[in-house]
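Section 3.1: Structural characterization of target chains.
Under the original work plan, the team committed to producing a structural model for every single-chain target entering the pipeline before any wet-lab resources were allocated. The record below documents one such target. The sequence was received from the expression subgroup and is listed exactly as submitted; it comprises 425 residues.
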Amino acid sequence: MAFKKIAFVCVFILFTVFIFSETFTISKIRIIIQNAEYVWDEERGLELISEGPSYISPYTIMTYSNLVPGKKMNQKMLEQEISRTQLRLQDSGLFYSVSVHIVPPRKNPHLRTIVITVSEGFLHRFSAGNAYGMYGLEGLGGERASVRVYAGWNLFSLKYTHENIGNKNYIIGLSATSKDFFPSMLDKGKQNSVSAYSLEIGKYLTSDIAVLLFSNFSFLNCIENFSDTYIHYGPLIRVHRYEYFPFRFSWEMETAAFWYMNQNSLKMESSWNFSKALFSHFFESNKREQSLIFSNLLSFGYGSETIDSFMAFDLFDTADKSVRSGYKKDTLLCSAYFLFSSELRWNFLSLKIPPAFVCINQIFIYSDFAVLKNIENKNELFCADAFGAGFRLLFDNPIFAYFTFSGGANHKGELRFVFSATAGF
């Protein structure tokens, strides 16, 4: 009896290894947008099969997937990339619904057809923050392009991004910001940015990885000569991945190094975010529209000895990257730092607001811990901490507006309450 069980286990293992090691070839990809249908194969490229009232370009959809005709993959890799493609398309905010699945051809068992079906979503964006509002528009011209306008008391900003120029995955981003658009309320005795202009150019190496060159020009209220303006530039890399080993989780990374040419200063920073949904099967089996998410942020930065308070890392005001307790801002301006933040989030209630809006109510507990070199005292290390809780209103697809309220204290009992227009790290 024991021998039969061992033999059965061995056969099962061999069968599983065979299934997951067998290689398949993607023969073609069908893309269905509303009622329009396209077919993409290796020989003929992308062809329109049937017309329909669609707006989003099929080339835009292709940028969210690493699946291409002619690519060879085993069953496990193919299923994982199918899942990643669906998650990327859902996270893009361009679609109400997304479906990605595999169709095995009748004749050749080693070929696979991928079918991507999407329903176009609400492309307008709204948000707000401290004394400002934001309006944005996604999918400009059906492309992977967007524009956002921020306006409020003492703030005006315009941002434009295109992430698939010439359908070649090239990226360009432009922004212009003024904090002196209306009569100024800035403190003239401090280094405050009156206007800033930035440019980034780069390329998606894959659907997960973008490499860019970034440049920024900032003019301060206390600057009289152009030679004293803050101009910095340098490389930037962004990664956003969904992983399935050793368990399902997602992670993001952004790393940059900037050189301030007029100040002869170097600044480097790297941020990593890891998120994992807990007890998903429990919520699904009980048909509850709830989720429990464990998210962690690891961030560190270094600046040369010549950086001043304007170039310093700000662990007080920076959204999703701060110590949320009762320290003063001057204490959390630093030339170098290490920050670890952790949140346990419970999406406990999902409200459907007619006609098609969804509001997710989230409560969370958090802890922040940082080791830093204060900008005024660079020879000593300072430890900062925070422990607290908060509440979020998440207006997800199709609004994409987020509001966070939190309050926390450090080990000295010093309190601070924070409001931000963000969904968290």
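The chain has three domains: 2-120, 123-262, 273-425.
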